[in-house]
Structure formats: structure tokens, C-alpha cells
Amino acid sequence: MKRLFVNTLVRILVAVAAFLCLGFGVPVHADPTPLFVLNSLEASVSVIDPVTWTEKQRIPTGKEPHHLYMTPDEKSLIIANALGDSLLFVDPRTAQVQRTVRGILDPYQLRFSPDMKWFVTAGNRLNHLDIYHWNGSDLTLAKRIATSKTPSHVWIDSTSTRLYASMQDSDELVMVDLATQTLKWRSKTGSLPADVFGTPDDRFILVGLTGGTGVEVYDVTGDAPRLVKTIPTGEGAHAFRGVGDKRHVFVSNRVANTISKIDYQTMAVVASYPAPGGPDCMDVSPDGRTIYVASRWAQYLTVIDTTTGKTVRRVKVGRSPHGVWTLDHAPRQ
Q1: How far apart are CA 317 and CA 282, in angstroms?
Q2: 7-11, 97-101, 153-157 — which is least confidently predicted?
Q3: pTM listed for this prediction
Q4: C-alpha–C-alpha distance, residues 34 and 151, integer Å
Q5: Does domain 2-26+35-326 match CATH 3.40.50.970?
Q6: Degrees to nearest 5, angle at CA 256 with 302 and 175
Q7: Which of 198, 32, 27 is nearest to 113 (CA)?
Q8: What is the helix (H) or strand (E) element at residue 207, kind and residue range?
Q9: In whole angstroms, how far apart are CA 137 and each of 71, 80, 99, 107, 314?
Q10: What is the mean pLDDT of the chain?
Q11: Model confidence over 28-42: pLDDT tens digits?
């Protein structure tokens, strides 16, 4: 009788273990989410396995994908195809294509507002900003705003009321009131302004100067912006990525082949990392210790360890890699 009881108990335990391993209970391990790298000159996105560090898939996109952004519910990664006039929605966990939204004119760069009501695209070649209403699944154009030459990157403040955009070939920073969709001011900047980054308190806007050697800092608390400082970072300052600690931001210096870490409380560079191959867009690991950066001219995703300052691996991707994203990342600020 005792032996029967023991055997029965063993069978029950085995069955419970099998039940859990099959995923009907609480999973012990979750599959790591992939990294996505846009290949702008190949109309494709490389899907990188973060365990084997190999390209496991290459997904066709529309023409010239440059930037990408997550939907607020984190169920879709939106890839903006600038010359394809379309948005490609991809599952960020499985890399499965979900749908294509067409008729979005020249979506070069894109961003959701923090309140999730607005979706904005910068028309780099058509010189406009498009502001869309977002209802959780679909886009409705609210206003198309004509701008100066070559709108490049956009930033929306924490209150979802102010949209900032750089004008790459007009050397300007502009501000749009989202509630009324009207352009409120424009201000001259240094040469070839690219990415734009706002501090969490909405007091300062940082502008990367691709045609210069640093980052301009503007106080935007008044009726007009005021240049308060230029931070030397390196030639070709281009793209920003918050470290995730609400104090520091990385900027890639495309010509200098470096990445600078800026303390935006002191507005000074506190660290610098070699980043070969024309560093461009970046994403950051949840602990802030790893930078994933597109090496634009070398056709690589470069992985940098910020604790040692060294490149730890390079993964071959397509031509002119640009946007980089993974669901498993540090907060944007």
C-alpha cells in the first residue's frame, strides 16, 4: 500500500512538472526579445537573436526605412518607410509582420505623444510635419504643417502639448502647439541639426549638430528659445538615446566615430566610447550597461559595453543600417 502511494505521488509530481514545462502554468524562462535593425538602402529589417548574436531573419519593408517606434500598448513595432509612403507593423516579440498602412506621405521620423493621443511623422523630403490622431489602432490625419527644408527629427514634451522638430537643411529648430496644430516659433541653429532630445523637466531641448562638433542646449521655458550652451562631443553629433536614469543621455558622433555620455543636469560630457563605422541610432539595455548602435557606413550592429568602454561584438546586417530597437530596453530618459 505504501509503495502504491509513493508511485502515485511520483506520477502526480511528474505530471505537474510536465504541465508547467508545456507552458500551461507559470513559465520559468521567457524567450529573449529580438533586436531590430533597419537597412535603409536594402528596404529591409534585420532581426537579431540576442543570445547567438546572429541575424536570424531579414524582413522586406517599403523603400528606405529609417526610423521605428513602438505603439503605446507595446504590441507593434512601427517601421516608417520614407520612400515607400507606408508604415509596417511588426510584432516586437516574434518579428511577425502584422499589417502595412499605406498613404502615409514620406514618414522619415516618427513619435507618439506621451498621452498616446498624437502620432507625428517628419516628411524629410517633402518638407512637412504630419500630425495624426491615434485611437489605439488607427491613424487619422489632423493637420499637415509646411515647414522649412528637410524636417529631420521630432520630440514631444512630457505634457503632450509641444512638438519640437529640427530642420536639417534650413538650420532651424521649430516648435508646434499640438492642441491647435500651429507653428509657434522657429529659431536658427548650428549646421545640419539632426536629433532632438528634451530633459524630463521640459526645460531644455538638446540638438545634435551633424554639421558641427557638438550639441546645442536651448532653454525653452520662455516665449522664445534661448541658446544657453554648446557641449563639445565630437564631429557629426547626430542621434540621442536616454540612458534610462533620468540624468544622462548618449549622443552618437557619426564623423568622430564615438558616442558621448552627457549629464544633462550639468550639461557636460562625462564619458566617451569608441564606436567605429559611423555610429547612428542606438538602443540601450535595461541596466544601461550595453549600447546597441547602428554602424551606418560599415553594415554592422555594434554592441558596446559601457563599463569597459569596449566593443564586445559586431553583427553583420544590410546596407546603411539606421534605426535600432528592442523591446527589452532601458526607459527613454
Answers
A1: 15
A2: 7-11
A3: 0.90
A4: 30
A5: no
A6: 90
A7: 198
A8: strand 204-209
A9: 9, 16, 11, 18, 36
A10: 92
A11: 446 789 999 999 999
pLDDT level of residue 332 (50, 70, 90 thresholds):
confident
Spatial CA neighbour of 190 closest among 227, 141, 139, 143: 227
3-state secondary structure 178-195: CCCCEEEEEEECCCCEEE
pLDDT tens-digit readout, 208-247 = 999 999 999 999 999 999 999 999 999 999 999 999 999 9
Contact (Cβ atoms closer than 8 angstroms) between residue 258 and residue 272: yes
Contacts of 284 (CB under 8 A, 6+ apart): 241, 242, 243, 244, 250, 290, 291, 292, 329, 330
Identify the three-state secondary structure at position 250. strand
Residue 87 predicted with pLDDT over 70: yes
Task: Mark out the alpha helices in the chain (DSSP H runs).
Answer: 2-21
**What's the CA gap between 194 and 237, in Å, rounded?**
8
Can you name the residues that pair with 226 across neighbouring β-strands? 219
**Cα 180 to Cα 243: distance, rounded to the nearest angstrom:** 32
CA-CA distance, 26 to 20, in Å (whole number)? 7
pLDDT tens track for 112-158? 999 999 999 999 999 999 999 999 999 999 999 999 999 999 999 99
